[in-house]
Amino acid sequence: MSQHRPSEPDPAALQTPLPSGKGAGESSGGSSGGSGGRSGSKAGTSLDTIVARVVIEQGLATQEEVDRCLEEAKGDKGKTLARALVDREVVTRRQMERLRSQIEAERSGQQIPGYKI
Fold first, then answer.
1. Domain residue ranges of the chain, discontinuous segments joined by +
2. Whole-prediction pTM value?
3. Which of 2, 37, 1, 12 is CA-nearest to residue 93?
């Protein structure tokens, strides 16, 4: 009876910026559910917008939970929304890892087959 323990992703991987094909001046590009008063001072703001939309659409978090985590991330300059969601136990590290390829595809502008955008 060997104990199978899947390797957990490195917490730093959740904060690693994903490659971006877009410039930093993309603050009002039609984000759904955006909270208007965000300053956009963090480089991960566009990534946070995608993460927020995906976790809500997948039913992993409510808008209220995401808003709380966004406030937490905004107050801590080095913290991303993904990290705040995991730290507050809204989503697990494994769930966030599973969403990573979807989030990367959206960030690079690719469409995901079978996924409604």
1. 41-107
2. 0.56
3. 12
Q: Identify the three-state secondary structure at position 9.
A: coil
| Separation of alpha carbons 97 and 109, rounded Å | 19
d(CA 19, CA 91): 23
Does the pLDDT of residue 114 top 80, yes or no? no
51-87: string of b/e by CB count within 10 Å (b at 16+)? bbbbbbeeebbeeebbebbbebbbeeeebbbbbbbbe
Tens of pLDDT, residue by residue over 14-55, are: 444 443 333 333 333 333 333 333 334 444 568 899 999 999
Q: What is the CB neighbour count within 10 angstroms for residue 22?
A: 11
**Spatial CA neighbour of 95 closest among 84, 105, 85:** 85
